[in-house]
Amino acid sequence: MLSVFSLLLAGMVVTFVGNTNNYKQWYEEEKNLTTILQAELTTKDEQYNVQVKKIDEIKQQENQELQSLRADKNQLASDLRKAERLAQQYQGQAESWKGVMTGFEQSVRNLQASLSQTQTQLDHARTQGVKDQKELNQITADLYEKIVQLQSLEAERRRLLEQKKELENRVTTGGLSAKEIIPVTPLNRTASPATTAPAGTDVKGLVVEVQQNLITLSVGSADGVKENMVFHITRGDRFLCDVVVTNVDINRCAGVLDLIQQSPQVGDTASTEL
Amino acid sequence: MAKKATSPDSDVYTAFLALACLAVLAAAVFVTLTCMDYYGSDALIKIAQTPK
After folding, report:
1. A128-139 pLDDT, tens digit each
2. DSSP one-letter string for chain A
3. Which residue has the higher pLDDT, B1 or A101?
4. Considering only CB atoms, which chain A residues are within 8 Å of B27?
5. Is pLDDT above 50 for A60?
6. Looking at the complex, does the CB of residue B36 fall below 8 Å from at least one CB of chain A?
7. pLDDT band for position B1 (cuts 50, 70, 90)
8. Which pLDDT belongs to residue A175?
9. CB A253 within 8 A of CB A217
């Protein structure tokens, strides 16, 4: 019985010892692992310290930049408030100027309407003036012609009176002379219009009046000017514009501007040929 | 008194007892070798010493 128990106990001991773990080996492995981990921890600590230092430097830089940005922000906010105040001020000025401009526009419209009306009246008066001037020139020419005819008739009357008186003297003296009676007053020719300039000749004159698109020249029908005749206005050697004649008087004519290179002035030369 | 000679009834029990002793001895040797393998040759001495 004791032997059986001894065998059993020996088997149990062998089984137990065979299945036990090698704790020393585990300890050595764990110790090595701990050493490695300690070394890694040290390395990580150093890296951590380096990173912390870098982070501190970055934090300092960021703080400086943040302070700078805050200063800029404050400056910009101040500028913004100032700009807003100026904008409000300018807005108020713009509103006031807008009102003033509205008034000016209304005044300008009224002035333009008045100017247009005045221009119309002026054109009408100018046309009427040209027409009246033409009639006056015609009447003056007729008057000169009548005066000349009257002077001729007066001379004829005096000549007839002289012939009558001479005849009466002869009748009273009783002798008739075969000699023809010659009156003292010479026989005048009747008045005749001046000859016009032949066509194709150069007609030259001066600009005597300039009114916007209408111009008056110092030559008229007595110089051979006719309607639709074209004059060239020059100043020295420089061409200014053309004038198409629309109204013709005896010693003046009027026309409208054409091919305007430069506005003519009083005293510029006008000619039909350049 | 004369000495009485004794003899075993059967050699089977003796053989069984020897086998048991050999098994116990083999187990002790196995345990010793295993301990030396795991913890070194000084382990047996350190185990016997009392802890300070």
Report:
1. 999 999 899 899
2. -HHHHHHHHHHHHHHHHHH---HHHHHHHHHHHHHHHHHHHHHHHHHHHHHHHHHHHHHHHHHHHHHHHHHHHHHHHHHHHHHHHHHHHHHHHHHHHHHHHHHHHHHHHHHHHHHHHHHHHHHHHHHHHHHHHHHHHHHHHHHHHHHHHHHHHHHHHHHHHHHHHHHHHHHHHT---SSPP--SSPPPPPP-PPPPPPTTS--EEEEEEEETTEEEES--GGGT--TT-EEEEEETTEEEEEEEEEEE-SS-EEEEEES-SS---TT-EEES--
3. A101
4. 10-11, 13-14
5. yes
6. no
7. low
8. 56
9. yes
For chain A, the average pLDDT equals 87
Interchain CB distance below 8 Å, B20 and A3? yes
Q: Token digits for A218?
A: 């110092």
Phi then psi for A123, rounded to 5 degrees?
-60, -45
Nearest to A6 among B20, B38, B39 (CB): B20
* pLDDT of the residue at B2: 60
Residues A240, A183 contacting (CB under 8 angstroms): no
Residues with Cβ within 8 Å of residue A9, at least 6 apart in sequence: B24
Q: How confident is the model at residue B26 (pLDDT cuts 50, 70, 90)?
A: very high
Which residues are within 8 A (CB) of A253 and not within 5 positions of it... i.e. 6 or more apart?
A216, A217, A219, A220, A221, A225, A245, A247
Question: Which single residue is written with the structure tokens 């000084």?
Answer: B42
Q: pLDDT tens digits, residue range A180-220?
A: 556 666 555 555 444 444 445 788 889 998 887 889 999 98
Strand (E) or helix (H) holding A233:
strand A230-235
Indicate which of A9, A17, A24 best probes the interface with B, i.e. most B CBs within 10 Å of its own CB: A17
In sequence order, which residues have a C-beta less than 8 Å from that of residue A214 and are 6 or more positions away?
A126, A254, A255, A256, A257
CATH code for the structural domain at A204-271: 2.40.10
pTM to 2 decimals? 0.33
